Here is the input.
Amino acid sequence: MRKKLQQSKRIVIKIGTSSLMTANGKVNYQQFDRLAYVLSTLNKDGKEIVLVSSGAMGVGLDKLNISKRPVSIPGQQAISAIGQCEMMNLYSRFFSHYNQTVGQILLTRDIIEFPESLKNVTNTFNALIEMGIIPIVNENDTVAVEELDHQTKFGDNDQLSAIVANIIDADLLIMLSDIDGFYDQNPVNNPDATLFHTISQVTDEEMAKAGGEGSSFGTGGMITKLKAAQYLLKNNHEMILAKAEDPTIIFDILKGHEIGTYFSNQPELIKEETTE
Ligand code: ADP
Here is the structure.
């Protein structure tokens, strides 16, 4: 048992596009519904929940019935603008079934460089949480640019979710992916790969075990997930990497069941708890 996880109060959940869309590029309503059910239930139980959701591009393409993302950046930003709106509409509708209000937070990376911006962002999160509302976070694709002197892009939502978990001082980041954890080699190509149950530090050795590009939707693969974990461990935070297929898995994670890979820099505590 991972007893410590039972005490987690402030929890960030990150879900990727591939877990919100079906294999043929349609909105996966079941996933939206289950996520809304689980997160609303936890919020009502007194947890403080923040959702980081990708999916604007995928939902936008589906809404417009386009199968390929545009090549140009403005074209992509336009689809994201449409998809973000539709995605929030979906979340709002599904969460309202469970009597739960949500709020949208769109961020760019430069908020961490400007203390005043950071303060405002943190205050908004705290105000929403205090009101019992679940903030739903995504990158602000319209303004996010990748320039040397003005970097406003997070790069990927794995990093974004780790930064959010850090700035709101979350007890735990639950990263839901198309894979059930971090293995010693990419299990997609190697059936003999074994799952790591706990990781206490992410060094070059771990990074070298993350290969391949992952899903056609996702942009990150395992490397960005490890980088997110590395950042959190450095800042004394924790992360679980687990499979998004059935979001009710979050209930079991928070009961302390051994699910997915647990990134924590307190391995002694974990050991002691798992030998009980
Ligand atoms: P998501 O879209 O859920 O955010 P990605 O598909 O981008 O996730 O990344 C997860 C993928 O990373 C897995 O499906 C797998 O193909 C790949 N991967 C590469 N190396 C590893 C590893 N060592 N352990 C687990 N998955 C790995």
